[in-house]
Every structure is written in C-alpha cells, then in structure tokens.
Amino acid sequence: DADVTQTPRNRITKTGKRIMLECSQTKGHDRMYWYRQDPGLGLRLIYYSFDVKDINKGEISDGYSVSRQAQAKFSLSLESAIPNQTALYFCATSDWGTSKSDEQFFGPGTRLTVL
Amino acid sequence: GQNIDQPTEMTATEGAIVQINCTYQTSGFNGLFWYQQHAGEAPTFLSYNVLDGLEEKGRFSSFLSRSKGYSYLLLKELQMKDSASYLCAVRVSGGYQKVTFGTGTKLQVIP
C-alpha cells in the first residue's frame, strides 16, 4: 500500500462549487504539506502543518483552506472553485525528527479541472 | 526571496552522462534537494546536499558549492527510464525551514 494517498485522483467541477481534496499517510510523519503544480511554474506551497495544532499559510493560500483532522490526515478545500485553480495538486509529508534532510514524500497527486 | 534557475529542457543519449545544473540566490541557505518527477507522477527524492562537495548514490551524484550558489545533478549510464523532470529545491533556515522548488529540467533520453 502507498504511504501517502490522495483522493480523488481526478476531479472535474464547475466554477463556484466547493471541493475537498483529501490526503492520508501511514508514514507516521508530523509534517504535511499541500502544493499545486502548474506548467512552467513548478511546485508552489499552499499550506503546511507541523502537527495537528499547527497550520500555516504557504505562498499561495488565497482561495484555499485546510484541516488537519489527525496526524495522518490533511485536507485541502476550495470554498468556491475558479478556473485558475485548475492544476495538479500534491500532498506531501516529512519527518524532521529522524531524517537529517527532512526530504518530502509526495502523494500521487489530484488532477483538478475547474470549468 | 529565493531565485532558483535550471535549464528548461535537455536531451541526452542512452548510455551517456548528463549534468543538470541549478543555480540559486538565497539568504540563510540550509540545504539543497534534487527530486525526480516522471510525467503525471509524484516527485521522488533523489539527493540532499548541505555541505560543499559531491554526494554519490549509484548512478546519480549531486554536487554543491555554497559560495557559488551552484549545484548539479550528474546522471551516469543513462537509461530510457531516466526520462523525467528533475527538480532542484532549496531550503532556508528559520522557523519553518522553507523549501522552494525550481521549475524543473525536463530530460529526454534518446536511443
């Protein structure tokens, strides 16, 4: 089984709809992240969480919200989707405590299309 | 802020060696990562450098020069499966230990 899973894997929705993307991990990591990836722009950080009670905005948080329901679960919501939120979304985890590099482990991604 | 530059695309021949460069400008440098990303898939961690020098891991090596703000990823004995994007990412010190990703270099390996 994959260590970091994301649901759904693909989603097509309409402008104005509320969308939730979910991420679960079995790695036991405290740190979780949400990124979006657009052609030519690379990975950009939306939100990050260092533990259940710690949630922080990344560089492009406008239009997004998150919920850290448990150590293993981190959800991303688009309250009112707009077309420029069409992108590939990745969840990631890392473990600062045991890894000298704190490298990130990514989920398989969710391809979101907003019409 | 941070600025990370890497070539957009490269082409190399199967069995050859290719070097992918990354230059960065940042304050509070605290580590550089290389990730591999196949089309439509998740990035996967390849290497990490925080001190100057070369880190070797099988066919892949990564080099860092902090004074020059420069790193490269060296891929030896190229295989077709190495066709992918290679992402350079820089971490800075501070409360969050922010990591910023470059836009990636798309490598095409040809027979």
The average pLDDT value of chain B, as a whole number, equals 94
Strand content of chain B: over 45%
Task: Indicate the proportion of strand residues of chain A.
Answer: over 45%
- How far apart are the termini of chain A? 33 Å
If you compute it from the alpha carbons, what radius of gyration of chain A comes out, rounded to the nearest whole angstrom? Answer: 13 Å
What portion of residues of chain B is helical? under 10%
SS class of chain B: mainly beta
Of all protein chain pairs, which has the greatest interface, and how many residues does each chain bring to it? A-B, 20 and 21 residues
Record field, number of beta strands of chain A: 11
Order of secondary-structure elements of chain B: EEEEEEEEEEE
Low-confidence stretches of chain B: none
What does the largest sheet of chain A look like?
Answer: 7 strands, mixed
The run of helices and strands of chain A is EEEEEEEEEEE
Which regions of chain A contain 5 or more consecutive residues with pLDDT less than 50?
none
- Nearest-integer average pLDDT of chain A: 93
Name the helicity range of chain A: under 10%
The largest sheet of chain B is: 6 strands, mixed
Give the overall shape of chain B. globular
Structural class of chain A: mainly beta
Shape of chain A: globular
